[in-house]
Amino acid sequence: MFHSEPFFDSLPSDLDKAYPELNDACHFAPNIPNATISSFSVAWLKRFVDDDTRYEQFLCPPPRPDGEISDYQDTCARAS
Questions:
Q1: Contacts by residues 59-65 (CB-CB < 8 Å, ≥ 24 positions apart)
Q2: How far, in whole angstroms, is CA 45 from its chain's centroid?
Q3: 31 has which bridge partners?
Q4: How far is CA 27 from CA 6, 10, 12, 23, 72, in A?
Q5: Which of 13, 23, 67, 79 is most buried (CB neighbours < 10 A)?
Q6: pTM
């Protein structure tokens, strides 16, 4: 959060971007099995690397904070 939030904030607001923050996660969270990280990673990669707009439904609207996600910031722009 000390590096990721300032980085997220430094990106232009008209850029498609998202910042999920997980409850009780550490720096090594992406290295361990986690369904929340996997779901958002695959959806983001499919949407923005493969340009597959079918995956937008998993990114927008943004998730609400719950037991896994403590914060989620995004621009949630949809492709036309």
A1: 59/18, 62/18, 63/20
A2: 10
A3: none
A4: 16, 20, 25, 12, 17
A5: 23
A6: 0.70
